[in-house]
Every structure is written in C-alpha cells, then in structure tokens.
Design a protein that fits this description.
The protein is an alpha/beta fold. It folds into two domains: about 30-125, Aspartate/ornithine carbamoyltransferase (Rossmann fold); about 130-285, Aspartate/ornithine carbamoyltransferase (Rossmann fold, 3-Layer(aba) Sandwich). The chain contains twelve helices and nine strands. A five-stranded parallel sheet has the order 7-6-5-8-9. Strands 2-1-3-4 form a four-stranded parallel sheet, sandwiched between helices. Helix 1 (about 15-30) crosses helix 6 and helix 7 runs parallel beside helix 8 (about 190-200). The longest helix has 20 residues, at about 285-305.
Amino acid sequence: MATPASVLSVADLAADDIWGLIQRAVSLKTQPSPSQLQGKVLALLFEKPSLRTRVSFDVAIYQLGGHAVYLSPEEVGLGKREAIPDAARTLGRYVDCIAARTFSHQSLETLARYAGVPVINALSDHEHPCQALGDLLTIYEKKGRLAGLKLAFVGDGNNVARSLLLASSLVGLDFHIASPLGHELRGAVVRQAESFAAQSGASISLTSDTRAAVKDADVVYTDVWTSMGQEAEAEARRVAFASYRVDDQLLSLARGDVLFMHPLPAHHGEEIAQGLLDHPRSVVFDQAENRLHIQKAVLLRLLCS
C-alpha cells in the first residue's frame, strides 16, 4: 500500500500548494463548510504540552464536522511504552489522520511511514510547518501579497525559523535572519531554501547583525530564546541572545507599516521588550487565530479526495 500524503515539512508542499492553502483558509474564515469532514477522526499525539496547537486542531476538526482524540504526553510514550511503528499501525486502524507534536523529527517520519494515514507535523525539533503556513496567511491578509516583501527574523535558527525560511523561499518572500554565532540556520535546510529561492526570486540573508536584518523590513519576527527540550541551556542562551531582544528601538528601523510577529508563548523581557505584544504594529494574536484557519485547509487537503 502506498504511503499517504503527509505534511511533515514545508518542503512537502510546492508554491502552488501553499497558495491553495492560503486561499482556502481565507475562504473558510467566511464560509466554514461545517460538514466536509463528517465522521473523520483526528488523533492529536502530543509528546510536548501545547495551548494553540492543541486547541486549534481540536476546534478545526470539530468545526469541519469531525472529531479529535487527544493523547497526552503521559499517554504517548513513543519508543518507550511502545515501539513507534507499532503505535503508528495501531492508530492507523482507528483514525483518519494524525497530528503529532514530538521531540524528534525522526519520530514523525516513522509515524508517517507506518501509520497508513496522513500525518501532520504539529511541531518537531526540526520544523513547525503549520505555524509558518499560518504566518504566511497573516502576512497575506495584512499586506495583500507575499512576493517582494522582506521578513526579518531575529533570534535562534530554530524549528520555526526553518519552516519560515522554506515557506518564504517558496513564495518569493525575502527572508533575512539575524542570529548569534553558533545559533544560526545552517546545512541542508539553507541549501534547499536557496534552491527554492532561485525559482521564486526570493532573497535569503543570514547575519549576526540585528540592525542590518531589520532595516526596511516589512515584517519583524522573533521567537523564544530557549525552546522546549533546551531548558538546561537556558542561562547560556540568555547570555548569547542578550543583544537580540526586539524592542521599539529595533522595530523603528523597519518600515513604518511593519508587522510584528511572534508564534507564542512569549517571554516578556527576554526576546521581546515588555509590552511589545500590544504594540500598534503587533499582529501576534491574528497569527494565533490563523493557525485555526490554515489547519482547517491542511486537514481538508489531506482528507478530502
């Protein structure tokens, strides 16, 4: 039996696929189509806790007529209580789709190989594709376009940054990231994005200079300095990232109509100055809402033949 289509990485999608998801999400915001996934069941398989990801997927499948089954970090035990292939093959007999939030991207790949149903990356150590897709939806809604805009990411070359790099390079959105040495994006994901950018016309810049990255940006984006699973590095990261806080002064280098974005949760006083989420240019909570709408579009793409 052929392995069904899954979304483990932004790179699993072509530029036309991303545009299709954005347009469908825009439509779903005004025309919910509640019965399209009637009788479908989504397993939420989470090794990490979550607010936005869990609620947005649960509400998305419910509003489309389906049902979610949540499996908590304590219940999962992937590779501990049970081998991942065995868990995948069992879940595949019960549900129509799996949204998995895992520590290891390899666990996602194993789930997708054995489940026999589509698997969605709801966050791994390598990528967070649904976040990036929701972010593109938000930028498109606010700016009316993506190609030719400049997105400046300030901070760690983490899973969110990887997905945003790939998504931006596919749709022609210029991606500039400023990271401390040792925490920058590197390797295969950069090479893959450069290949996409050669087709879309996007530019990619990797620097340690926050001011250069943010200058004339249409979007300024940041994320936490310490992700889940990196708690032992927290103090060292606070030192390394001390000059990478986004505040009014840094934001003033961007365009006057800049959008400020953050995937949440935010650590006020660390990666962002106190009060920045309430800045007039902040669209952070629009981002959070748009996770719901883009994930509806993803579910419909995978579950409607």
